[in-house]
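Worked example 2:
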Amino acid sequence: MSFKSDIRQKVEYQCNKCGKLRILFIAPVLQSGKVETHGYIEYCDVHFCEKNELNAIKLFVDHNYDVRSQVAVETKSKSDEPAFTELAGLGIPIPEKTEFITQTIVPTRDFGGYNLKKIEIKDKLRQRTYVIMEDEGEGEKEIIVDSPLKFVEIKVQVSADLKIDIVKEWLVGLSNIVESLVYLDENLLSYLGTYLDYMLINIPREKELLELTLLLHSSVAIPHSTKQHIEIFEEHVNELFPDLNVVSYRLYKSILKACLENEQKTILNFYEELKKKMTQIQAFPYYISIISTLVSFGFINLEKLEFYTAVG
């Protein structure tokens, strides 16, 4: 992956546990506003570290894209609280174990609470508990799932007629995605409740898990398309999408054109723009489904926030 130096900045640090040089490329527009609030922004980097085991490093990055501090995060399977160990620091405080903050997320107006009554995400990397809920009722099932590294715990209350195994599949996928996020935009959790409320009744396929990933990356993921992508889409649209109606075709084409040679706008930026122009694209889950399809077929290349290990 290559970027022009004037449109991407590089966040670089050497992990003090394993010695690997880790690099994150980022569009300035994604960081500038977030840094202004605290003077720095928090990123999480989960990578294969000492003894080739996955480990989490919490980074504090300033407005110059310099890593001011890196903190190793450790958790035990039977412990609710993570342990923070400062590896290198320049005045950024180490989080205290007692600083867990519970934050109530207001769901979107489309959230009906038909299948999902309440979801609680305990994120031990960011020391936040996010709660999205409808009015609690009787006869509901409570299901709890931990992420692979135990940094994320998800607890839900769902309708009694849902199948537990299917719900658990969704939660395992969700916990894995949250645990691997470099940056978690709390505003997107409003859409998460709405999406899951509709989807929990069916077994998650690869396409739905991609949609879930795109949803949680949508405020920092930058979609790109090219003239060649659009030409191939127009040439093969009937073969690839035989059931696509005229309205859906226009939506697909509009999204591809919007992403043409895009370098700065995110998936969420385009949604906000398109829904003002097209009444058919008001529902965010539907929009994410279209983006997922275009990504799956290679018509959109997606640039996500993710760290790479420098080679050489």
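Residues 1-5 have pLDDT under 50 and may be disordered. The chain has three domains: 9-95, 101-202, 222-303.
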